[in-house]
Inverse folding.
């Protein structure tokens, strides 16, 4: 492998660390009443300052807390204890009503985030103090994955992600690549610690509102991006460089076949196999066929997610043998090792303004049967590509609440 | 070999199932004409020509947001028409305008091929057309939301982002009497306006900004106090009463003004409500009027600054400019100062309500200050 430059970790290391911690299945963010998140402790400190100033010489006050945000990630008991402790250090103590002064603290929420609002009543005077709670970037608790499907979040960022790959350079070092609409980004990790971050601009010929892209790696230091009518090749020589050129045939490698993309749209028109045979299906968003090595089935079977919202099953014939309603537009085959039937992961069929889901199906005898419960994803799934190992899939989604983009690895577990 | 044969057969396949049903699909699909009906009549989209009324101004703003790629902080548009997601392909003054997708739009070509706006459609006609599938998209008056849902129309509702307020006219004797202003403010039953007139669409307003904007709206009381109002009005010496005006073309404003008149009468306040001609007479012949002000930004500081700027010339507020980086507390203090003078009496916050046909996908009600996001919308198409 070519030598790679080392650069001291950037702030992104912490993002990755948070992601790693949070993505553990069933990750819990439970806290004891005495522990509140750091950002809230800071906000309480500022609020206590303002309350103390408003109380002046008054030493005893009654304290009431309420949460009208209905979603604050903090327990009122812990917040109260922290505030009371802070106030006592400032020489004022909370006592049962009636008291010389009354303090009402409300957890409120605006578009900008949570706020602590204190109403301080002292005699006829009333003062209001407002302290915003800094956004921490901490992940909200993730719902536990449904039995059967697991999603491991590996990255979060505010910029859109089209695709990503994670590659092992040697026993210690790993290279991660992220394709964004305007750049190809590489990160190097040494024993899990980020040591390098480099981004190279990429230019595309077409801008589409539903821009799709795919990364294909030859090895850890050579990666190609297909998107927007171009192919961009990234390599280390010795530093990371990217060269883009028009993708004349608009073909995207997809395992043993190539898909022909319609470059100013978001769908594909043709599948070309390695022996130059072409299969022309109705325009499709995605397609999947079973891996003969793991399922013992012929790859002449193919399910195609068409533009009309229906997935169709072709078994080596010109006409579909079956159609599946209610499927979303992204489908991948997955070798879960659970059972012998052909299994596919399918996205949901709602709007991109809603939460999404992934459902595992078994396709057998021209019929598709849902296996287990769907796994909810807290925003639309923008890309679902098969993993190189055939046992997992790469998933890109946008979180509705924060608008951030998440890269995840999806896999299927047996026995649940 | 068998595989090759199978694939060769598949080469000729372009078949789709002949179901004829409208089906769901997740990823956006290109094509189709989005049919939109609006109530306003637009006689020009020329930036230099002033719209005839507030409805026309709102409609022009929505269309401009589709035609221009950039918006200035003051809400005006920058660049040339057609630099945005769409360009004008047909124009018939006061009747139709058709916008075609801009293939070279830097944000990516919109999913629909074009948008056909039909102007001058009354609210009841828009609702009927949504019901029978004659249009894909139309605004619905908030008070008609319940009826629309009962009639099977898909409805999308924004956050409350339009303030309805009563504003006293600077310089009029009764408007300069603090007791008179506070008496009327205390007499108004905002909950009744929301529950009965707006059919529970909207929220009672005590401050100028809704809760989602600054997080402090709950600090402003919206309670009705007829006893306190009566007592205050008794201290108003020799007033002939209050004349309350409302937009002559706005039935919701009229209903609210009539409800205020009922509340005022219950508190012993002499108040008459009447329509204001368009254009308004000069000098104005009303002591207070009902106004509707759309919140222009999701940033509370900018939203309050814009509201303040709109209210100053009517109410004669003495309000300094807000600091550029005003804190939540400073914004709250300014709101409190404006509302505490009772020259501006917040009544309710209204959401924008949109009705959609079944084939409209990926519509999301826009945030305050953002135009209709038609570039992101796509249309479910009949399977052929």
């Amino acid at each position: 492998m070519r030598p790679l430059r080392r650069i001291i970790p950037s702030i992104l290391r912490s993002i990755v660390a948070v992601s790693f911690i949070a993505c553990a299945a069933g990750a819990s963010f439970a806290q004891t009443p005495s522990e509140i998140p750091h950002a809230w402790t800071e906000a309480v400190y500022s609020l206590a300052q303002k309350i103390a100033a408003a109380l002046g010489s008054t030493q005893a006050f009654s304290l009431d807390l309420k949460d009208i945000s209905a979603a604050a990630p903090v327990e009122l008991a812990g917040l109260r204890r922290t505030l009371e402790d802070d106030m006592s250090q400032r020489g004022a103590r909370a006592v049962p009503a009636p008291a010389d002064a009354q303090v009402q603290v409300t957890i409120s929420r605006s578009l900008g985030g949570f706020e602590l609002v204190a109403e301080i009543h002292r005699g006829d005077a009333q003062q209001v103090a407002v302290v915003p709670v800094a956004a921490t970037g901490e992940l909200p608790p993730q719902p536990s994955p449904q039995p059967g499907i697991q999603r491991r979040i590996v990255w979060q960022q505010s910029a859109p992600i089209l695709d990503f790959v994670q590659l092992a350079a040697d026993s210690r070092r790993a290279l991660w690549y992220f394709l964004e609409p305007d750049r190809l980004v590489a990160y190097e990790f040494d024993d899990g610690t980020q040591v390098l971050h480099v981004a190279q601009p990429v230019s595309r010929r077409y801008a589409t509102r539903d821009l799709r892209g795919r990364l294909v790696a030859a090895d850890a230091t050579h990666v190609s991006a297909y998107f927007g009518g171009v192919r961009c090749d990234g390599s280390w020589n010795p530093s990371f460089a990217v060269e883009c050129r028009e993708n004349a045939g608009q073909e995207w490698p997809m395992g043993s076949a190539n898909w022909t993309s319609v470059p100013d749209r978001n769908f594909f028109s043709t599948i070309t196999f390695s022996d130059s045979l072409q299969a022309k299906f109705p325009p499709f968003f995605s397609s999947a066929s079973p891996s003969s090595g793991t399922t013992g089935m012929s790859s002449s079977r193919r399910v195609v997610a068409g533009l009309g919202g229906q997935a169709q099953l072709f078994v080596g014939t010109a006409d579909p043998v079956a159609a599946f309603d209610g499927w979303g537009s992204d489908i991948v085959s997955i070798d879960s090792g659970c059972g012998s039937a052909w299994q596919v992961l399918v996205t949901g069929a709602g709007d991109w303004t809603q939460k999404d889901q992934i459902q595992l199906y078994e396709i057998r005898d021209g019929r598709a049967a849902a296996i287990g419960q769907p796994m909810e994803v807290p925003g639309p799934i923008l890309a679902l590509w098969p993993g190189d190992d055939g046992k997992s899939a790469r998933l890109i989604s946008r979180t509705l609440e924060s608008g951030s983009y998440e890269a995840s690895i999806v896999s299927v577990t047996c026995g649940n | 070999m068998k595989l090759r044969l199978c694939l060769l057969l598949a080469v000729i396949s372009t078949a789709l199932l002949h179901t004829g049903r409208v089906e769901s699909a997740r990823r956006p699909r290109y094509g189709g004409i989005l049919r939109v009906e609006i109530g306003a009549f637009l006689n020009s989209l020329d930036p230099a020509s002033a719209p005839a009324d507030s409805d026309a101004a709102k409609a022009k703003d929505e269309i401009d947001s589709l035609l221009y790629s950039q918006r200035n902080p003051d809400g005006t548009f920058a660049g040339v028409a057609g630099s945005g997601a769409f360009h004008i392909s047909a124009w018939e003054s006061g009747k139709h305008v058709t916008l075609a997708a801009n293939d070279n739009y830097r944000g990516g070509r919109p999913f629909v091929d074009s948008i056909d706006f039909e102007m001058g459609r009354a609210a009841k006609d828009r609702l009927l057309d949504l019901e029978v599938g004659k249009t894909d998209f139309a605004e619905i008056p908030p008070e008609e939301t319940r009826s629309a849902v009962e009639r099977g129309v898909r409805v999308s509702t924004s956050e409350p982002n339009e303030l309805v307020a009563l504003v006293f006219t600077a310089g009029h004797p009764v408007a300069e009497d603090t007791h008179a202003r506070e008496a009327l403010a205390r007499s108004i039953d905002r909950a009744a306006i929301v529950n009965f007139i707006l059919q529970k669409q909207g929220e009672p307003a005590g401050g100028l900004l809704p809760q989602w904007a600054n997080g402090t709206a709950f600090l402003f009381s919206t309670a009705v106090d007829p006893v306190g109002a009566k007592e205050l009005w008794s201290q108003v010496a020799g007033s002939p009463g209050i004349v309350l005006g409302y937009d002559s073309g706005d039935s919701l404003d009229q209903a609210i003004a009539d409800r205020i008149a009922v509340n005022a009468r219950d508190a012993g306040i002499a108040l008459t409500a009447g329509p204001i001609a368009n254009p308004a007479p000069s000098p104005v012949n009303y002591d207070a009027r009902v106004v509707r002000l759309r919140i222009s930004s999701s940033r509370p500081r900018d939203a309050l600054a814009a509201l303040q700027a709109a209210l100053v010339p009517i109410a004669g507020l003495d309000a300094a400019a807000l600091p550029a980086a005003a804190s939540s507390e400073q914004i709250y203090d300014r709101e409190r100062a404006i509302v505490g003078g009772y020259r501006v009496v917040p009544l309710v916050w209204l959401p924008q309500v949109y009705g959609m046909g079944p084939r409209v996908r990926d519509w999301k009600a826009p945030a305050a200050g953002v135009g209709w996001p038609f570039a992101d919308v796509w249309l479910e198409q009949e399977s052929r």
